[in-house]
Structure formats: structure tokens, C-alpha cells
Amino acid sequence: MEKNIKNTIDTIYDRRSIRKYLDKSVNPDLVQEILRAAMFAPSGCNKQPWHFVVFDDKDKILQIKDMHPYASALSTAPVCIMVCGDTQKEMAEGFYQVDCSAAIENMLLAANALGLDTCWMGIYPWKDVMENFSKTFALPNNVKPFALISLGYAAMKVERPKRNNENLIHYNKW
Length: 174
Known about the structure:
The chain has five helices and four strands; from the N terminus they run ααβαβαβαβ. It is an alpha+beta fold. Helix 1 (8-14) packs across helix 4 (95-113) and helix 2 packs across helix 4 (95-113). It has helices spanning 8-14, 28-38, 58-67, 95-113, 127-136, and strands at 50-55, 79-86, 117-122, 143-152. It has a single domain (14-156), classed as NADH Oxidase (3-Layer(aba) Sandwich). The N and C termini lie far apart (45 Å). Strands 1-2-4-3 form a four-stranded antiparallel beta sheet, with helices on both faces.
């Protein structure tokens, strides 16, 4: 693992959704580190109802791109991770979505800290898209496709935006 990891606040502020990647492979050890970070996310009653399907075969990634209406980032991404939720492991109905979201945020931040770039593309709650992914990848009935994460090296640098909007912060009342 790289020794020069960014500090947490800069990682949070610098993370961007990237939709075009360099033609450069991603070290499998970095992918494993990102997945490990995902599994350190909080989850309801520590049930950890997530599963991760890693795609690094370009033909498979392009097949996935064609299955999703907003997955243009997969045209150039060297890696795609499908995050799935296990309804048999969630704390209560509807919690896998919250838990998988926390795992995804950990993935996005870990990737950025390691010098990689990502884009989160939701599958849930589109029932027809979910059904297509479930069928195509023969997911068990209790495992629901939740999101796709493209992973790679950005083709261009995206600057940190200004997002501190004081109008969205409320203290002790609305």
C-alpha cells in the first residue's frame, strides 16, 4: 500500500465523480484495499449485508455499461464493482440500502486517498434495472444489486468546488 496517503479532510473535499478514465490498469492490491475499506463501514447491528462483484474484464464492463442508462463512465473504466445488498443479513427491511451506501462512501474515499478515481452509479431503486442485473449475473434471490462503482485513473483533473452553503445548516431549530 502507498505510504503517501492523503489526510481525511482533503480526501473528502477532493473526491469527485469521474466519468472518463485513462487507459491504465489498476493494481489488484489497491482494489482489495478499497474493498477492505468498504467492509469497515458501519452497518445496522453490524450485520454487514453487502457483497461486492469485481469486474476487470473489459467486455464484461462494456456489457454492464449497456445495461444501465447512466453508466457512460464504464466506457473507459478499467474496473467496475457492483455493490449488492443481502436482504437476509440486513438489520431490518430497508437497511441494506443504508448500509451499502456507507460501504460505498468508504470505497469512494479510500480510492481517492489511494490516488484513484470513481463514479457511483445507482441501480436501486429501478426495479427493471435491478431485475436485469439480478438475472444477468444469476444473483441469489436474497442478494439485490444496489450500485455500480467505476474505478480507475481520471483522464483529467477536476478542481475542488465551493460547497459550503450556510443556508443548509440549522441550529436548535429550523
